[in-house]
Design goal:
Helix 1 links the parallel strand 1 and strand 2. The protein is of the alpha/beta class. Helix 1 packs parallel to helix 2, helix 4 packs parallel to helix 5 and helix 10 runs parallel beside helix 13. It has 13 helices and 18 strands.
């Protein structure tokens, strides 16, 4: 019997709004475009959507620099359009999660503008991290921390008299000053923000940088500042994973439970928690804190059966052991597309990377817990690796001058139909182009083509999601590993559903002799080809 707590085994589709569907013809996706795409998502079979930030913003980091947390940027629509989107999603049985950004705001936020206009030591400045510089003239930053997107984590302000003043902390870009969560007014403001959106009917929040918020109260130097530059959020233990952050999540959980008590609808908090181990991750999903947190170790694991088994086992032991369920991900808006990460040539779609991505998708959907799918993964989209420098928008590129780690390639607008750009993404007038250029080879991946081809990524996802929703063996629960030879990974779910993945390139005997219920590629009875995953069920027999 499926659990009544929908979030425990939900499959959520991440909508990167500016690249999903453009309804106004300006080359940028919008809320009305998401609303238009809801029937497509219903047909795919997802349980909910996570919307990237759509709040008023200067867009220095595409909405993760928020100037007003309780409105809609005109680029994406307005509050009336948002309300229509929520209402339509509810009619279709699709949950709606918002992306909330509590670690930092925009340098255009009214509170930060007021802080800049206020003197050192003022109450307005205590809402952020302002500090005097070091050195005789205060010309050096207050500490040696690095920003995640390159360069120092501090910028100096100019006072009203034109003289250099204090410095302020920004763990990402200078346009994203970090909130000071040690000031209780910050917590009170976010309490108001949560309630504003919960009152408008949202089903929960994806929390950006959920291991951030609090910094060491003394802002001391890092022992290893060289390690802090653009790797994992967890590298600077003075800026992330402070113990006080757990009190915030306990309060937010209580707010959600308050709304659930009113109407019986579960609200979800899912955190972007980047910490070194599954055990530390588990501390964020204790029964009175976040409902879930993304488990990135599966995403970062190399294509190797031992590596996959290790991270899955650790997650099941440490995270599921808290009473939460593991939240599996293979991709998101910050990562190289799965097909490319697993070895696909930039313009191809039928080779090693595609086969591995299909197998990994089937594996993820068979695991106990929840799963998140980034838009375009259901089409098998590869990373666009050859965007010219003059179209790149990622602040990582503009802060470092390097293409290493940039994220534009996974954010190129989706192809929906046709043979030439904008591939149905936009109905704009001639000369209006998508905000990032789509390569010609996207014609091979358009949605209309994927829906017509029963061998496509889309049909694999759709069939996997359908079975996951209907089979009691899938979704929430446990797994039991099977003994397998090297290169083969296999486990049993519930009463007799087996999932196996061949991580090698040569066919191997399948752990179950019959014809699979579902497979990521051609799979005859008794054999599991290389880079292929399959599901079997004990009482399944193919139609004659």
């Amino acid at each position: 019997m499926k659990t009544h707590h929908w979030w425990r085994d939900a499959v959520i589709y991440q909508v990167y709004i500016r690249s999903f569907l453009d309804s106004t013809g300006d080359g940028v996706g919008d809320l009305a475009g998401v609303r238009t795409g809801l029937p497509y998502l219903k047909k795919l079979g997802v349980d909910g959507i996570w919307l990237s930030p759509f709040y008023p913003s200067p867009q220095h980091d595409h909405g993760y620099d928020v100037a007003d947390y309780c409105d809609v940027d005109p680029l994406f629509g307005d509050l009336a359009e948002f309300d229509l989107l929520v209402a339509d999603a509810r009619r279709l049985g699709i949950k709606v999660l918002l992306d909330i950004v509590p670690n930092h705001c925009s340098s255009e936020h009214p509170w930060f503008r007021r802080a800049l206009a206020s003197p050192p030591g003022s109450g307005d400045r205590s809402l952020f991290h302002f500090a005097d510089g070091r050195g005789p003239e205060g010309n050096e930053p207050p500490n040696n921390w690095h920003a995640m997107f390159g360069g120092p984590a501090w910028s100096r302000v100019t006072d009203a008299d034109g003289r250099p003043g204090q410095w302020y902390l920004h763990m990402f870009t200078p346009e994203q000053p970090d909130w000071n969560w040690r000031d209780p007014r910050v917590a009170a403001e976010f309490d108001r923000i949560l309630r504003f959106w919960l009152d408008r009917g949202v089903d929960g929040f994806r929390i950006d940088v959920a291991a951030g918020l609090f910094k060491h109260p003394e802002l001391p130097d890092s022992d290893d500042p060289g390690a802090d530059a653009r790797t994992r959020d967890s590298v600077n233990p003075l800026a992330w994973n402070q113990p006080e952050v757990h009190d915030v999540w306990r309060h937010w959980r209580a707010v959600c439970e308050e709304y659930t008590a009113r109407d019986g609808r579960d609200r979800l908090l899912v955190g972007e928690v980047s910490v070194p181990t599954a055990r530390e991750h588990a501390r964020y999903v204790r029964p009175d804190e976040l409902h879930q947190a993304f488990f990135f170790d599966l995403l970062s694991a190399p294509w190797d059966d031992d590596a996959f088994r290790k991270v899955i086992s650790e997650a099941m032991e440490d995270i599921a052991g808290t009473g939460s369920t593991v939240t599996w991900v293979l991709n998101n808006h910050d990562q190289v597309r799965t097909v490319t990460r697993y070895g696909e040539p930039a313009t191809g779609g039928s080779g090693q990377g595609a086969a591995r991505a299909r197998a990994a998708a089937l594996l993820m959907l068979a695991l106990p817990g929840a799963a998140y799918i980034y838009q375009g993964e259901e089409l098998g989209l590869p990373e666009v690796v050859d965007l010219p420098d003059d179209v790149l928008t990622d602040p990582i590129f503009h802060r470092t001058g390097s293409r290493t780690g940039i994220r534009d390639g996974c954010r190129v607008p989706l192809p929906w139909s046709g043979q030439v750009s904008p591939f149905g993404f936009s109905s704009g007038a001639a000369g209006v182009k998508p905000w990032l250029p789509q390569p010609d080879y996207f014609a091979e991946y358009v949605t209309e083509r994927a829906l017509a081809d029963t061998r496509s990524f889309w049909h694999l996802y759709r069939e996997g999601l359908h079975l996951r929703a209907t089979l009691d063996q899938l979704g929430e629960g446990t797994l039991r590993w099977l003994e397998t030879p090297p290169g083969l990974l296999a486990f049993v779910r519930g009463d007799g559903l087996t999932c196996a993945v061949n991580f090698g390139t040569a066919p191997v005997p399948a752990p179950v002799s019959g014809v699979p219920l579902l497979s990521s590629g051609p799979c005859p009875a008794g054999v599991l080809p290389g880079s292929t995953a399959a599901w079997w069920i004990d009482d399944f027999s193919p139609a004659s």
